[in-house]
Design brief:
The protein has about 500 residues and is α/β, with parallel strands linked by helices. The protein has 2 domains: about 260 residues, 3-Layer(aba) Sandwich (Rossmann fold), CATH 3.40.50; about 200 residues, Class I glutamine amidotransferase (GATase) domain (Rossmann fold, 3-Layer(aba) Sandwich), CATH 3.40.50.880. Helices cover about 30% and strands about 30% of the residues. The protein contains 16 helices and 29 strands. Strands 17-15-18-20-29-28-27 form a 7-stranded mixed β-sheet. Strand 27 and strand 28 form a beta hairpin. The protein is globular and about 70 Å long. Keywords: Cobalamin biosynthesis, Glutamine amidotransferase. GO terms for molecular function: ABC-type vitamin B12 transporter activity; catalytic activity.
Length: about 500
């Protein structure tokens, strides 16, 4: 045995955080550890060094484990294109677009179980421990027959399971009991214990409930993790500035100069890789917020159009809400606008899309001298370059191919006046480039903002991951976790019939 599955009573219970925390805790102990998520549904993705696309959360977990991310760590990635369909990415490469029903009921998901188990087996052969993350809840009984990420994976790979519950939402004891009771006997035999997440207050007040939970289920609580501010990580979905841990608006450190700098991020439909703005939020004196109304741009010094898996849909959304007109006025006034990936495409003169939306030829906002044509083949790359006199690294994930016809070169895109566009995600994580870019933005916006000379995004991320490791080390039963990783679920765990006790 050298594995563990972290499941959750619900989506967003804290599985990703706990998985990352366990990885960092083990890595600090000298254990060679890797993360794994069999199937991820997210528009927030990353490109590995070998050019494979995986969930950004798994890339973050690999950083927690201090190992290089690979396609083995997330063999199946689903990228929603609408409420009912997703692009299916297998071992880092897109293989087609499927409806939810076609994926779950058409046999496609079940057929991927061998791919998933082979990837996990390869990781387990190479690492001392593999910490697997589930998806949603293991008690989604309507999907159990085709499951490859929760109990279906645990059964196939013989993994012990720890269930995480978010007590901040309320009802955590019922969630733990109900989740276990809804599982088949063979699945219940692998559920070895529970982790309470986001607890506020005196733990002694919780202990009677934990004792009753053990009496009812025969399974222990393996820890109570306190509510910790500012521990957001690279999200699978949701509007969150990760390093500041706040929904919709970042917490701002005091500015290094006289002014703060206000950044408005358009919350476009099917927004992807919104973590690009985390590096901006990491700068002292930079306020980052997500907006969906034109009036919210009035006091913004920089407007960011982020990535999206629906460029044409985002264009329509911007026009319907008056945001397109407001952005055009800003550009005419020389006020800064940055488009990243899909946001770059939105700024183009013309878009020809027979792939993503199949809308054909569509007029863009016309703020950059660029024509975009959508190709069937997806571009997945890890480019390096230079801009504003500074070294830059990034990653590319897009079907749109840009034909840049003028302007000043900017990474793979261009700049005209105060409007900037590039396909490169992650470029703002390059500290020197980010500071140079913000100096230009501040000058164009007329702000006496000065980037701090010593802000290191990488160091902030490392500190964040260490704090996740501290949560596990200080508040979880680490001896019990090690036993599960090394020996598997203990024999003789009791069966709980639905409706019991």
């Amino acid at each position: 045995m050298n594995g563990l599955l972290v499941a959750g009573t619900t989506s967003d219970a804290g599985k990703s955080v706990v998985t990352a925390g366990i990885c960092r805790w083990l890595a600090r102990k000298g254990v060679k550890v890797a993360p794994f998520k069999a199937q991820n549904m997210s528009l927030n993705s990353y490109v590995t060094r070998e050019g494979a696309e995986i969930g950004r959360a798994q890339a973050m977990q690999a950083a927690a484990a201090r190992v290089e991310p690979s396609a083995l760590m997330n063999p199946v990635l689903l990228k929603p294109g609408s409420d009912r369909s997703s692009q299916v990415v297998v071992m880092g490469r897109p293989v087609g677009e499927l409806s939810a029903r076609g994926y779950h009921e058409g046999g496609r998901q079940a057929s991927l179980l061998p791919v998933v188990t082979e990837a996990l087996a390869e990781l387990r052969a190479s690492y001392d421990a593999v910490i697997c993350e589930g998806a949603g809840s293991p008690a989604e009984i309507n999907l159990r027959h085709n499951d490859i990420v929760n109990m279906g994976l645990a059964r196939a790979a013989g993994l012990p399971v720890v269930v995480v519950g978010d007590i901040d939402r309320g009802g955590v004891f019922a969630s733990f009991f109900g989740t276990t009771a809804l599982l088949a006997a063979e699945d219940q035999a692998l559920v070895a214990g529970y982790l309470v997440n986001k607890f506020r207050g005196d733990v002694s007040l919780l202990e009677p409930g934990l004792e009753q939970l053990r009496a009812l289920t025969g399974r222990p609580a393996l820890g109570v993790l306190p509510y910790a501010h500012g521990l957001g990580i690279d999200e699978e979905d949701g509007l969150r500035v990760s390093l500041r841990g706040a929904v919709r608006e970042s917490v701002v450190a005091p500015p290094h100069g006289a002014d703060v700098l206000r950044v408005a991020v358009a919350a476009v439909p099917l927004m992807s890789n919104f973590t690009d703005v985390d590096a901006l939020a990491a700068e002292p004196g930079v306020v980052v917020r997500f907006v969906d109304r034109a009036e919210e741009l009035a006091d913004a010094d920089l407007v960011v159009l982020p990535g999206t898996r629906g460029t044409v849909r985002a264009l329509a959304w911007l026009r319907e809400r008056g945001l397109a007109q407001a952005i055009a006025r800003r550009a005419a006034e020389g006020r800064p606008v940055l488009g990243i990936c899909g946001g770059f495409q939105v700024l183009a003169e013309r878009i020809e899309d027979e792939v993503e939306s199949r809308a054909g030829a569509v007029d863009g906002l016309g703020l950059l001298p660029v024509r975009v044509r959508f190709a069937v083949e997806k571009t997945l790359a890890r480019p390096v370059g230079e801009a504003l006199g500074e070294a830059v690294e990034g990653y590319e994930i897009h079907h749109g191919v840009a034909d840049v016809r003028g302007g000043e070169p900017f990474l793979d895109g261009c700049r005209v006046g105060s409007v900037w566009g590039t396909h490169w995600h992650g470029s703002l994580e390059s500290d020197g480039f980010r500071r140079a870019f913000l100096r230009r933005v501040a000058a164009d916006a007329g702000r006496a903002f000065v980037p701090a000379p010593d802000t290191s995004f990488g160091a902030l991320r490392e500190d964040q991951l260490d704090r996740l490791g501290d949560l596990i080390e200080q508040h979880a039963d680490t001896k019990a976790l090690l036993r599960l990783i090394e020996r598997g679920a203990p024999a003789g765990l009791p069966f709980i019939a639905p409706g019991a006790p």
